[in-house]
Amino acid sequence: MKIQDKETFDKANVFGLGQENSAFAQYFIGNSYLNPLTKPGESTIALANVTFEPGCRNNWHIHHAKTGGGQILICTAGSGWYQEEGKLAVSLEPGTVIVIPPEVKHWHGAKADSWFSHIAFEVPGTETNNEWLEEVDDEAYSKLQ
């Protein structure tokens, strides 16, 4: 469900906007916000609500792991995109669940005309790390409908 109006989106974004995602801003086009839902050390699973302003998306990236690992996205508000390298982009709507295995190059973010939020689960594993890659260029992004 596309939501352009910030006030309307804030009502739908039940897990909250959080703070500007400045620590990872270099890996995003546009502004994103991070609201941690678990505290470090509280669980083996880290949960956070990530909110993207319209047009915001993260760079291509890979979740590496020797064993386990990867990421799960649960879309909660607004409308976004998810794309794996070599595949068509998938529309993200509230209730969509995306399971991202380790070692899969992908990106995700808001549609150009909608705010978007998802809860991100980092799947536990050994020797896990994220490799941030190139931006999703404006030309490719603008072709998504």
Automatic annotation (TrEMBL):
Coiled coil: none
Domain Cupin type-2 span(s) in chain numbering: 50-112
Source organism, top-level taxon: Bacteria
Pfam family membership, one: Cupin_2
Organism: Sellimonas caecigallum
Protein name, per record: Cupin domain-containing protein
